[in-house]
Fold these 2 entries.
Entry 1:
Amino acid sequence: MISSDGIRGYNDAIILAVLQDGDSYGYQIGRAIRARTDDLYVIRETTLYSAFTRLTKAGYITAYPGEITYGRPRTYYHLTTAGRAFLATKTAEWRQVQQVVDRFLTEEA
Amino acid sequence: METLETYLNGLFAAVPQTPSTAKAKQDLLDLMTDHYHEELAKGHSEATALGLVIGEFGDIDELLAALDVDPIPDTEPNDRPEMTDDDVDGYWAGTERFARLLGLGIALVIAAPGVAATLSIDSGALAALGFIAPVALGIGLIIATSMGYRTVSRAMRALASTPAIRARAAGQADAYSRPRTIGLVGGIMMCILSVVPPIAANTGAFEGAIGAGGLFLFVAIGVYYIVYTSIVAGGFQRLTRQPSVFVDTLFDPPAPRPQAAPPYTKPTTVTAKPRRDKVRYDGWRAFYWPCLITGFLLFGFLGGEWTFAWFLLIVGGLFEKPLFGRTKR
């Protein structure tokens, strides 16, 4: 299982990528991350909520009350245009990072 | 979801109350509630589900950094070493032992008149011995175990709890809620059923003295279970709380609870109210009530002087505060 430290810096982009498929709420986003990585990455609730806070402040996502579950409206998140642009930038950055790291860690010397 | 809410309240107790932290707490509770229900749907028990949710919760400091808030500093420097799992296991084992022996001591004192009544069939001297022996043993147990438990709780008071310890305690408290309910209900049932032996004696099933003995025995067993389960549950509950400094409600004054400040106001810290009462003869305090109760029982049951026995108990109760001060230490 991958730790949050190992993937730090890309948590925000991963959440934005999940929201690219449609609006969603906290726990469902966490579950989607877990499912898409075959349980390799389980994002903790505090990490998830910290990312929501950062992304909302930056204007990359917006929050709104959705369906009522267990007596309370769930907070849903929506990807904004600025968020899509940021995700595109992070995706390009990741490709470069991946190339650089690969040259040291995976290519045969 | 009381346990999850208690856990979050504990984590946020030292955090300034602002709209953003209140929202964060509620959203986190929603996240944890969803997680909890999914673990239940997977077939886990409630206690296991709670343990998994709390165990996978994460680091509160990361969240506070994202929210741009700093915890309210403690009113006194907290340089206490942190509790370890071994400390906690030792404390809970000590609490269980205390609960068992204190319950037994109280039960013996309650059962003493019953033993005396049953033995009175044979001889008066045997009845007196049957009364004094359980009372003496019971009071000895109450005093010895109470003083022994002070050592356990003082050792814990010197340590600071951690979020992981509080999470573990919350899980244990939740897992113990069922045994506690069974203990309380069973104890109360025994007290109610204590009228059965005297009623049976009245119908001629056996002698009246045995009926009286049965009454006190039933009450003693009932009280034992109530005392035992309440103290064990209290041991788990105590470690779920903030502030991080351990406070034992049995021997310490109640911990000042953090007050929720209105939005956008300077957070208030709670300081301990200065104690106005002088504490005198404090070392004798542990013996005070056991001695009063012994006097009450001796004058009442053995001497038949019930008026004086009640006078002793009531006046003794009134003198407790002037003699020892208001707060137990």
Entry 2:
Amino acid sequence: MPKAIFGTPEGTRDRLFSECRDRRAAQSLITSLFKKRGFTEVITPEVEFYDLFGYVPQESMLKVVDRTGKILVLRPDSTTPIARVAATKLKNSVFPQRLYYNQTVFRSDIGNLGNDAEIQQCGVELLGAAGVKGDAEITALAIDVLEACGVQNCHIELGYPGYFKALAADLPADADTLEQIRESISTKNFTALRAILEPFGNEKAAKALEELAFLFGGPEVLDRAEEISSDPKAAECVKYLRTLYSELKMAGRGDRVRFDLGMVSGLNYYTGIVFRGYAEGAAKAIIAGGRYDNLTASFGFPLPSTGFAIYVDDLVACLPPARLPRIKAVIHFASGMLDEAIRELETYPAGEAELSPYEEREKSLKLAKDRGAEYLICFGPEGKEEECLEQA
Amino acid sequence: MNRLRIAVTKGRLLDDSVKLFEKIGFDCEAVKNPGRRLLCPVDDGGFDVVLAKAPDVITYIENGVCDMGIVGLDTILERGGEFYEVLDLQYGKCRFALASRGGEDFYGTYKTRTVATKYPKVAGDFFARKAIDVKLIKIEGSVELAPILGLADAIVDIVETGSTLKANGLEVIETVCGVSARLIVNTASMKLYRNEIMSLVAKCEKALPL
């Protein structure tokens, strides 16, 4: 007899009662908004081929080996599988396609740091839509999701790694140095950044890169970004952000928009704007997204695309917990009275009444008292009888 | 919003951290005399100071229960994590060094060397950069003992003055990297409370070096 297992694997946990309710409530709110905006659901496999996720560090993927010896992973991301679907099964459909998902992604490099191995994500992908209108639709949706969920002090933050790339291309530095610069900007490590850029002296690109780590905040960031660089490609990025911002402003969502031109994370599939969503009460971004125009091309079918994912549990953590329903009535019923009992049960709001499984009325009465219920309702041969219980 | 919370590493870095806050002009009485209190208000700064062990400072920042933190680069390198590392505070200076028994040629052999350390990640990364394979042994207490007892050929450890090494017949072979206190910030707090945090960062920067 093997030893009984009482725990769950690292980074996983059981969820009960309000945790489930709150998560499901958020998921249904979010996905109903997605549906209203014309997105349809896609479900992709929980396991995929390891090789599909080339840009995900291998130590962060949870692996399984299949019967034939191929390495599989529990999906670390939903966008890549959806890009695969779009480039294969939807190849002959009319684009754009609007897809949404409500899936779990998995991580394995979690340590004992309080991180989750299972991350619940709701997200959208707008496939086959180039240009600012698609980005405006998607970023407006991200803002609307945050508002619909009722999180406090929320905003989305737009970035454009192309701006950094344009400045970096003007700097006479090798790839290693540029990677160090990117890393320091991304972690806002001003000390390291200044040290790496020192040898480049007063070179305009170096001065601009030095400022990039702290180029975040309101629209004034865009003015400053224009001032510090004369690179035409960098200017194009700023112009794009400006156009997108003005669209969002005209759509009445401008006050929920901020910028961070230092948002330049490492390996990923983004090619255009990137954005994150923040809210009071969340320790990290609760939305992450951006434009990825080359991802489906790796499956032989180029489609300019844009989308985002919401970290559902992190979003729920920002909200006040919903009150759970309390049992008001316990229903005791004699043999032959099941249907009457069920009908009575269904007159109550979900979770406010309960059938007693006991034969003896005393036991049902005890259950009702233990639950703190207000009534014991009995269905016997003489019909329905209601007993009002004293509240403790 | 709630008041900002700053986690400060207890011990070696605490005195200078208090000095930094006082130099900016904050009243640190509660931090200096915490008694059994772990959460000390700095009212004129509008924030609370949490006194914590170094790796916990990062844990609190990452999980968002503290907004900012003061922690040594040694802990950052060993523990890693996701946060903004905004300022080198230039105190708590020391270095990571590779040291072995005096007179031994650590590199001059084809045998896999054994290295004892309290910082397996720092040591592992150091040798990985050099493309040298070593056997790492994690030691919790006085690492200097390992080469003396013959458990290891060398150690990677924090060196301040070098006197402990000397007293035990060890010599520094090479500096791994310099270490000093860093100001770190939770990534979401930075975005939500930009003005409060950036103004405090600017004040700290102006007060440096202590």
